[in-house]
Amino acid sequence: MKIYKAKDYNDMSRKAANIISAQIIMKPDCVLGLATGSTPVGAYRQLVEWYHKGDLDFSEVTTVNLDEYRGISRESSQSYYYFMNRNLFEKVNIDKSRTFLPDGMDPDAEHACESYTRIIHSIGGIDLQLLGLGHNGHIGFNEPGIAFEKETHCVTLSERTIKANMRFFPSEGDVPRQAYTMGIKTIMSARRILVAVCGEDKAEIVHTAFFGPVTPQVPASILQLHNDVTLVADEAALSECPKDALYQMAKGGLL
Questions:
Q1: How many domains does the chain have?
Q2: Lowest CB count within 10 Å: 103, 151, 153, 214, which one?
Q3: What is the pLDDT of residues 95-133, one digit of tens each?
């Protein structure tokens, strides 16, 4: 695992965008696994800027998103489909027919999940998967206690996750209670994984996830077992990590 320490959110976003852009340049027809939420917005903004400067070409890129709320249509401003269009897809030359998210409006959870898993397999898997990190260690919507071997599945969101997502909805009652998400098995099958984390409020979970035991109670801890993980985090998010371990893990990176 490599660690890149950033000064702040903007620096973290640039470093994350650099890694994503390098993947696109090295393999123009790559498959990117994308994430939503506030953390990746800055990285997407940087990628858009580089695209408009002529430095990036998304025309051959395929994308698969981590998750989508169950019961929310693509037209809803709270859907992750809407989020991705607003923050990236509508601002670059990506082929929309090659951008995939789970179908949140499919009422048959088993069908929705099997269909999305088939899509991911059919495009050859994920070259680079971007992840955020939840306060309870969730990645995607894989909540604590979910088995590591799952592929795409339907989850009931924890109260902590619901409260964390309240800021995107008019009220807590409007936050969906379920979502379709890539499972840990799918995430771990990605050839490379990029984790972006920012803020002092994430310091405890960064320490627990990357320097504690591997356990389904901290879903992100499984990333310790992947052979190509890069963590990009600001100083505040890394503040509780052991300094000697950070030094050793950063030798391959640029602290």
A1: 1
A2: 214
A3: 999 999 999 999 999 999 999 999 999 999 999 999 999
